[in-house]
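Hey, quick one: can you model this chain's 3D structure?
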Amino acid sequence: MRIAHIAAEIVPTTSGSFVGGLAKNVSTLAKEQINQGHDVEIFTSDINHRLREGITETSWQSNIIPTVGRYASLSYIQSYFLNAVREVIHAHKIRHFDIIHLHSAYAIFGAIGYYLGHIDTPKIFSLYSPNFSLLSGHSCKTSNNQVKTIITRFSTRPFNCIIVLSRNLETILNQYVSSRTPVRYVPPIIDSIIANSILPKNVARSKLNLDMNSILILYIGNFSSWKGIDILLQSIKKLKKEIQNICLLAAWGEPYQWSGNQKRIILKTIKDLDLENNVQHIGIVKDIGTVISASDIVVEPFRCTCKVLDSPLSILEAMARGKPVISSSVGGIPELLGKDQRGIVVSPGDIDQLTEAIRRLVYDEKTRERLGDAARNWILQNMDKDRILSLIQFIYESANQR
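Sure thing. Here's the predicted structure for all 402 residues.
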């Protein structure tokens, strides 16, 4: 099959890593489809000109969608929308795609499908987040079901199938999507390197030159407010009084400039809370698997998932490495962690609950091991890469038969 994926900023960093759940999932999917013998192209924006200037390369053909303005700004959205349609139509006339597969965190971006309507090729839309806003804002404040229904039905109508990456999102969409458009749950794909090659903690720490005696609390993500890093910092502040060797291992960073970047505020918070000796910055790294292996506990204190992957890959990757995870009861996260079965879920924004959950795992090594083992076993049983690829292939073939 000749497959065209459309998604924003599927561009590796200078270290070769892809940052963000959507970028990671699309890049891993494309790589695996190429391994299966498919011809794969990705149409994507390239704000930092890494692809255009040859700073980074990909194993698939990347087609640049020209954009204007900062990421997620109105000018960026308008130029991305119009130029994505133009680039795909132009390429299709030359190479003829068998499948056009759009990926977005925003339901409204499905409107691109209308402008591709005259292309007689099946179209698939993967929706990553429960976001039904008209612009690139938050959707968690949109409680008007009528608005959600209008936006969702309008945005999903041009497609042969809608793929969702969590059961939570499947439930939401089935309330609003027209019965003519099938909704299919397909989990994110976890990179085989992360899932299969687990290092012992001491080996990983030695490799990264990390202290062997510290209690390492790992955070993976950016500096945006909905990731809840400020809540985690408040918890670390409380805990350091009794756990003097506690350290926040911060695998954070931003691959591009945008309005949600609150790095300056977060760094000031670290200083104000007197945590400069309790936070170790490692930034964006290519080998996130080794970083996960080096940690004791992974904490992802999301306030919401309406601008991120509803089943966050940072959580799935930690589970695959057998690490205990603490996160929030938002979006598709509870279905991943269960009720203290494979991790601990706390109320979003609750500093006391988060602090107590971290304290509990710091002092209870057996529970850490039990949760980590259960998490890894669950991933192996439910997130098999070959099964996920087969599901996507079945969706593609079914769409071609309609």
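One thing worth noting: The mean pLDDT is 91.
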